[in-house]
Structures are given as C-alpha cells and as structure tokens.
Write a structure and sequence with these properties.
The chain is α/β, with parallel strands linked by helices. The chain has two domains: 197 residues, Rossmann fold; 151 residues, Glycogen Phosphorylase B (Rossmann fold). The chain has 14 helices and twelve strands. A six-stranded parallel beta sheet has the order 2-1-3-4-5-6, with helices on both faces. It has a six-stranded parallel beta sheet with strand order 9-8-7-10-11-12, with helices on both faces. α2 crosses α13, α4 crosses α5 and α10 crosses α12.
Length: 372
C-alpha cells in the first residue's frame, strides 16, 4: 500500500496508516453490550485509529454553537488534519466532518488520501458551502449509501463516487426463538411519517409501539399531538432492550417521507437481521434496499389506506410473513451484513490510497493525460 520514498516511509511509520473520523462521542464504552461498528472493524483491518467529535477545538464549547448552526464538525476536522498529517488516508464517516476536512486539505499538495462516506450531500447548507468553498478539491473518493445520492455526488466529484449498500452487525441483531407478541414496531426519527402510520394503525385495528429517539437525527418529525391508546411511545433505551423489542415484534414498519437519501436505513437493516417482515414506504432513498414482496412490503408514501391494507394483510397472513422473512434473510446474506460492507469500504479505501500515492509519485501524469 505504501509506495513512497524510504524517507517518507520512515516519517509515516510513527503515524497510523488510516485515520477514521466519526461523528459520535468516542469517550463512551464500546464493549459487547452494543453492536460492532463499521469504523471499529475497519480500524482493526487497516492499522487505523478512530477519532470522535467531542471537545477538539480550543474554543470548545463556544465553537460547538457554530458547529450546530452549520451541521459541521469543524473542530474535529482541524484536530484530524493537525494531529495526523502523515497518515496514508483520512476516512470521514459523514459529510459533517468530511466537508470541513476537505476544505482544509484542498490546497495541500502532499496530503493523505481522503475518503468520505456521504449520507446527504444536497441539503441547502451543504450546497452553499460547496459553492463558496469548493471542498470537492480536498476529497479523493465519495461513498454514498443510495443511488440517489450518488447521482448528486457525481455532479460534485465526477468519476470519484461509488454507491455501496450499507450493512450492520448481524451477529448482534440476530433472530430469536422468543415468542412474538401482539404489536407492530416502528423505530427511528429521521424523515419519518408517523402521522400516516398512526392513522393506518387505527384503521387496521392493531397495536403499535414507536421508539422515535435517535442519536443520529438533528431534526425530528413531529409526532401526532394526541396518540390513541393502542399506540405506545417508548423512551430511549439501550441496544440490548432495542434488540429484544425487535425480536418480540410481529411486524416492523418504517414509515417514510419521500426523500432522496437513505433515511430509515438502520430500521430496515435491523428488521432484516432479526428476521422480521417489514413494511416500508417507497421513499427514493431506500429503494436500493427493498423489493416489493421479496424482502419487504413496499407501500406508497403518505398513503393511509395503502399502509392500513398492508398492515392488515401482513399481520394476518402467516405465509406472507414467512416469505418476507426468507427475503430478509437472503438480503442479510447478500449485503446487509457487516463483513460485506466493511470489505467493500476497505477495497475503496485501498483504491483511493493507491491513486493518491501514484499521483504524488507522478504529479504530471494527470495533466499530461488531459492535454493529449
């Protein structure tokens, strides 16, 4: 992987080869009581170090106010660039840190490769920042989690984007022989359409449990003001309790607004891994992961009647539930597992590092190719 001169080799031997910047607090315990994370697995495979986003700026917490306003982890980006200048690569696990890091790197000649996993590149704030700052010059590879975002990424970094289906820790979120209980489960908050789901639940006459709290979501969808007795709103819980909640549910529902990023993805993947029949809205951002009546029952966005009909059919039809479970299991084996996802990330990181090092060794190659 390292193709530099011997002196550069020696300088880099003291630094981690890959720095993985994640938008979460790394001061908490990350033991066996929670699912394995993609970045932890990658750090083991790539001789890397994982850097969280808490308190890196000398002006913290004052700078945190500005970061919240811009939805960017600026202090973390500065910390990564200053602390690990001789790494082979930076891997940003969201555009929150990836965009400010790219802005810092865009004028550095002998910089590390920079790979960014992008979730939503086309928000208003990010479009404005790209127009002003041209962060695209500081990134070598953009990995998206749905084709809708890849189409946008291609306009920013032509030829340097790739779509990869995400996977999660299927060993943690696993099927169970525990007896199913009489409820429908819906988890998550990002771009959820709970108003449609609650109306559909009333029409179908079923019991619903909602866990809408999420550490990943900055803006939460408002819940209906008055919830009926058959709808239970749950408080935040640990991963073990969440897994048990999934395993005891009869059906998992992911009600979505129509968005062009992969909102609802964790809910769908967790449902797959615990082998539950899933009902999901046909949002553009989730279309790469679900196929109607193969691994999920897909319904039109914001359609109460269609959602109610799907709930009634899936809930009462044991054969259909088993068919959807088989499709979910196939999806886990095909792509929705952590090893598959991490393996693809590792491959793309290696490609970016090799391309960057080749460009450093032969800086005129790209220019000569373009002039011919």
């Amino acid at each position: 992987m390292n193709l530099h001169a011997p002196a550069l080799h020696a300088a880099r031997d003291a630094s981690p080869k890959v720095v993985l910047a994640v938008s979460e607090d790394r001061t908490e315990s990350h033991g066996h009581g929670r699912p394995a994370r993609d970045f932890d697995r990658l750090s083991e495979l790539l001789d890397g170090v994982v850097i969280g986003n808490v308190g890196h700026s000398p002006l913290y917490p004052l700078s945190r106010r500005f970061e919240k306003a811009t939805a960017l982890d600026i202090g973390q980006a500065v910390h990564v660039a200053r602390t690990f200048p001789d790494a082979d690569a930076y891997v940003s696990f969201s555009e929150r840190v990836g965009i400010p890091l790219a802005l810092l790197l865009r004028h550095r000649k002998n910089r590390p490769a920079h790979i960014m996993i992008a979730h939503r590149l086309n928000s208003r704030a990010k479009r404005l920042i790209d127009g002003i700052g041209r962060w695209r010059c500081g990134v070598d590879r953009v990995i998206t989690l749905c084709t809708a975002q890849r189409q946008y990424a291609e306009r920013i970094v032509p030829g340097a984007s790739v779509f990869i289906r995400q996977g999660i820790d299927e060993r943690y979120f696993h099927p169970s022989e525990v007896e199913e209980e009489d409820y429908v489960l819906s988890v998550g908050s990002e771009s959820r359409d709970y108003e449609t789901l609650v109306c559909a639940i009333l029409e179908a006459g079923l019991k619903l449990k909602i866990l809408s709290s999420s550490p990943w979501c900055r803006k939460r969808r408002d819940m209906p003001k008055a919830l009926p007795d058959r709808v239970e709103l749950l408080d935040r819980m640990d991963y073990g309790a969440l897994r048990d909640l999934y395993q005891r549910a009869r059906v998992v529902v992911v009600p979505l607004c129509d968005v062009d990023y992969a909102a609802g993805l964790n809910g769908v993947l967790e449902g797959f891994c615990v082998n539950k029949p899933i009902i999901v809205s046909n949002s553009r951002g989730i279309a790469d992961y679900v196929s109607h009546l193969r691994n999920a029952c897909v319904v039109p966005v914001s359609d109460v009647d269609a959602m109610a009909a799907a709930l009634g059919t899936v809930y009462s039809d044991a054969l259909l539930r088993e068919e959807l479970k088989r499709g979910a299991k196939e999806s886990v084996l095909e792509y929705a597992n952590l090893d598959s996802y991490v393996g693809q990330l590792k491959l793309e990181i290696g490609i970016a590092i090799e391309a960057r090092e080749a460009n450093l060794r032969y800086p005129g190659r790209r220019k000569q190719k373009g002039s011919s």
